[in-house]
Amino acid sequence: MKTSYCPNCQATVRVHHDYGAGYSDLYYCGVCDTELNYNFKFCILAAGKGTRNNDVDGLHKALLPLENKPVISHIIDKLDKKVEVVIAVGYKSNQIKTYLDAVYTDRKITYVDVDNFDGEGSGPGYSLLSCKDELQVPFIFTSVDTLVKEDVVFNFVGDNWLGVSEVSMENSMDYCLVRGSKYLDDLYYGTGNRAYVGMAGIHDYKDFWNALEDRKILKDEYQVIHGFDGLENIKLIDFTWYDTGNKKSLIIGFKEASNVLEKLALKSHSGKYKIIIIWLPEKLNNSAANRLLKTIEEPQDKTLILLITENVSKILPTIKSRCQVLSFPPMEHNVLSKWIKDEYDLSNERSEMLASLSEGQPGVAINYLKNDEELRLFSETFASSMRISFKKDFTELNNWVEKLSLLGRDQIIDYFSFSSSLFSLLVKHKFGDNNAIALDWFDDISFKTDGFARLLETSKLSFVLSSLDSAKLDIQRNLNAKIVLLDMGVKLMSIF
Q1: Same domain, 265 and 196
Q2: Are residues 72 and 131 in the same domain?
Q3: What is the pLDDT of residues 386-396, one digit of tens each?
Q4: Cβ(69)–Cβ(92) under 8 Å?
Q5: Do residues 256 and 233 share a domain?
Q6: Which of 70, 219, 242, 351 could form a disulfide with 346 if both were Cys (CB 3.0 to 4.6 A apart)?
Q7: Same domain, yes or no: 35 and 46
Q8: Of the spans 174-178, 197-201, 313-317, which averages the highest pLDDT?
Q9: pTM score
Q10: What range does the domain containing 218 cover?
Q11: Are residues 60 and 170 located together in one domain of the fold?
């Protein structure tokens, strides 16, 4: 028997453990006369930038490949499909959402957007606390950097527990260390040989939240360890731990290359072709590349090997020289517009608008289609920016900067991409391009395409576009968002 809380009325109840079902407790609430099973939830902290892997260009740490599968899939695939997954997202959140929404159509995933995911005051504790409203039941949480071999703890939350693993004394300064044996005595930074792996099970969630809300900064970040101060009888569970936050684990090595060859050696059961996709081949080390060279150069009959990269120049020359390079340029406007119209049964005006804004990128068009609120936000923000620039209203500019800076860094970058695309369309509209269709798609947003386009002076167009691109680059370089936005706003005021 264990004390818990009724999810219906929040009354205190006595819980009877029954783990035969593999994932739930049984309880009876005398207050609301309810006898039900309640499922725990599983939370993945994936909001941060992954600075230990800053040499991996353009890809969120959750999607980095390990044995030909993104890191986050290694975590989710351990869970029963009945378990709801809550994911804290921030940096490059659209990458994570797009991937998971496409792959896990059969399970419930809830995203929590973390507003502060980089720099002082951010950290795993802040991300986890952002998920509090979604985690009002027992839950397990883990950093997306954390993979463990064992899977038994993924089935239920019957106790408060903390995941630990042995580390070498010479590397212990890099981790949060644990004192204690069966029950937790202390968490600290220093030297030792048992590290907290970034994963824990929280049964007494109310006590945990109360303690975590009284959080303090450690190493410039809010850590989750303060939540453990509110718990009693925390069990320690030993794991075989893989720290994927270490960039060395992201290299495609000899073992992974051998796995590719083993799969190619299998006979095709029903199809004519065997197809292997190698994601990010620039991560092949020399031994792995040498292992694959012969097969890539002379594949078996009816065998296709596809190497997918965003930067062909980073692929080892020995690999690239044996491949045929196929580039995928942006789709032609008319082709993309027709595809969007037919695929999603949209009006001509809507499909034309999405094709124009996406600049030939189907993924971007689909994202705008599925995120109408974001499209509205970007449109309103752009319209406000242009009005402020023409009026030269510094008070309104400051308000605009404050409002936009509250968005996540990734969303600000997306806004600048949107603004550059929209401004380019306005330029085309000015000069009579038929593809630059009217962009007044929100009736309640005070912005008229024709009138604005006529006000644009040809001599100033390139300066506006370069200012937008420069601001986007500064945000990507992690400069202070308020300073970048204010600087760009002042520049636009100076030319209008």
Answers
A1: no
A2: yes
A3: 888 888 888 89
A4: no
A5: no
A6: 351
A7: no
A8: 197-201
A9: 0.49
A10: 40-248
A11: yes
Domain contains 148: yes
- Tokens at residue 233, please? 């009888």
**What are the tens digits of pLDDT across the range 451-489?**
666 666 766 777 888 888 888 888 877 778 888 899 888
- Are 478 and 418 in a shared domain? yes
Residues 391 and 460 in one domain: yes
Q: What is the residue whose two structure tokens read 């109408």?
A: 372
| Structure confidence by residue, pLDDT tens digits, 222-243 | 888 889 988 888 888 888 887 6
Give the chain's length: 496
| Under 8 Å between Cβ of 428 and 356 | no
In terms of domains, do 67 and 95 share one?
A: yes
CATH number for the domain harbouring residue 280: 3.40.50.300
Q: Tell me how many domains the chain contains.
A: 4
Task: State the Cα–Cα distance between residues 98 and 59, nearest whole angstrom.
Answer: 13
Domain harbouring 463, CATH code = 1.20.272
Burial bucket for residue 58 (CB in 10 Å: 0-12, 13-18, 19+): exposed
β-pair type (184-188, 177-180): antiparallel
Tokens 């925390």: give the residue: 234
